[in-house]
Design goal:
Shape: globular
Low-confidence stretches: none
Strand content: 15-25%
Number of helices: 15
Mean pLDDT: 96
Structural class: alpha/beta
Radius of gyration: 21 Å
Helix content: 25-40%
Length: about 475
């Protein structure tokens, strides 16, 4: 039996799955935590990866390995292959002003034409501009720029600083994939090429960038093949075997809406990012900073656990008696409001109940993502069904209320590590030469009962920003 290994190096932890390359059957898994924060020493990711692989049973017998990971994170290396400073993660918003500067210099429409995206604080280019402006000595030392999954792939293959690796600091052996490259704001998913002018505009000088591999292309590892990997959302789409017509709504630390499409999508407003996917197609995506932790915050306020929060929410009527929560607790990425705070509106003496507050939390979290679904549809993307995933998707109130907030039928796949599973599918793909069709189990299909007034009320309050 040939096995494949898929990795999800996320913001919070590293997850590893070992699967049968032919059937997709799960044979082992492992997990190790990452430190909290919006900047992290990449060495922690490497330690966590090794621990998670060991817990999953190791790599002996694996035919191929692929690594999915959090997008956008800025990893900068010097000429000796050493990390110059802690990586800035996607959710580090200190580069918001740098993003505005880049857009002012180049123009939103020009950025979309050249890269498919309008820079915001999340994207790698804006972090490089921040580095150039805030830490010019560090910026001057940058010999190579890569992303979290690129760096881990490089280290897994045996590369790194001379005293930490067998093969040494061969920067030209850095590789990436289309999906992660498309989140940098200096690579074009349309042409498949880096835009060196935009890189230099951000960093101040040119640097080595990872070679972009095709969806089924591999490079050599120590005894196994290594796939191109993928950004976390593209890996999740592959893990779900998403096809055109499928829109995925993921409720994790952040909230994301992304669709599988065969053609590129561009949005000069910056609401929808025109990313590439992990299959050779495209992945138009909307990301919100506030998702599952919205429920954490309101559950804590009410002094209940998530099961009780769900019970309370389902006791309230759709619309929460007029109570509306716009949950910008951590600022917001879509819309681009990094300095925003949360707002609750519509409270009266009659509507201020625990039940309505619980329901407003669920509705507010979902309405931010429903607006994302609408934005994707307005660009011509077909939405036949919504696949609801992520930790909060298991909440029964979230499932029921999703059927009322979204105007597209909702299905809830079985809880799983879909980013790691997508990486494992990619690993199996490079072994067999064909995309795996492993089954995806569904656990719920909530009744479709759209209440457009819920989203309308939310949008009226959100418009105040």
């Amino acid at each position: 039996m040939t096995t494949v290994v898929g990795v999800d190096s996320s913001t919070q932890s590293c997850k590893v799955v070992v699967r049968d390359a032919d059937t997709g059957a799960l044979l082992g898994s492992g997990r190790s935590s990452h430190p909290a924060g919006t900047e992290v020493e990449p060495a922690h990711w490497w330690t966590a990866l090794q621990a998670a692989i060991a817990e999953a049973g190791g790599l002996d017998g694996a035919g191929a390995v692929s690594i999915g990971g959090q997008q956008h994170g800025m990893v900068v290396l010097d000429a000796d292959g050493r990390v110059i400073r802690p990586a800035l993660l996607w959710n580090d918003t200190r580069s918001a002003a740098a993003a505005a500067d880049l857009v002012a210099e180049v123009g939103a429409a020009e950025y979309v034409a050249r890269t498919g995206v309008v820079p915001v604080a999340s994207f790698t280019a804006t972090k490089l501009r921040w580095l150039r402006d805030a830490e010019p000595e560090n910026a001057a030392r940058v010999a190579a720029v890569c992303l979290p999954h690129d760096w881990l792939t490089w280290r897994l293959r045996g590369y790194g600083p001379t005293d930490e690796s067998e093969l040494g600091p061969v920067l030209e052996e850095l590789v990436t994939d289309r999906s992660d490259a498309s989140g940098t704001a200096y690579w074009s998913p349309m042409s498949g090429e880096y835009d060196r002018d935009l890189l230099v505009r951000a960093l101040g000088h040119d640097a080595v960038l990872p070679r972009v591999l095709g969806e089924a292309e591999s490079v050599a590892g120590p005894g196994f093949l290594v796939g191109p990997g993928a950004g976390d959302n593209a890996a999740a789409a592959l893990g779900l075997d998403a096809r055109p017509g499928d829109v995925v709504v993921s409720l994790g630390t952040s909230g994301t809406v992304f669709a599988a499409t065969s053609g590129a999508v561009g949005d000069v407003t910056g609401t929808v990012a025109g990313f590439a996917d992990a299959t050779g197609g495209f992945l138009p995506l909307v990301c919100t900073l506030n998702a599952a932790r919205v429920l954490d915050a309101i559950a804590g306020l009410l002094g209940v656990d998530h099961a009780e929060l769900a019970r309370l929410a389902l006791q309230a009527e759709p619309g929460a008696g007029g109570a509306v929560l716009v949950p910008y607790f951590e600022g917001e990425r879509t819309p681009n409001l990094p300095g925003a705070t949360a707002t609750i509106a519509g409270l009266t003496l009659g509507s201020t109940t625990r039940e309505n507050l619980a329901r407003a939390a669920v509705e507010g979290m979902l309405c931010g993502l429903a607006a994302g679904v609408t934005a994707v549809q307005q660009l011509g993307v077909e939405a036949k069904r919504i696949l609801l995933i992520g930790g909060a998707a298991a909440n029964p109130a979230v499932q029921v209320i999703a059927g009322q907030v979204f105007d597209v039928p909702v299905e809830v796949p079985s809880p799983g590590e879909y980013v790691a599973d997508g990486a494992a599918r990619q690993a199996a793909w490079i072994l067999s030469g064909s995309r795996p069709t492993w089954p995806v189990e569904l656990v719920a299909a909530p009744a479709s009962d759209p209440h457009p007034e819920i989203l309308a009320a939310y949008q009226a309050v959100a418009a105040r920003y």
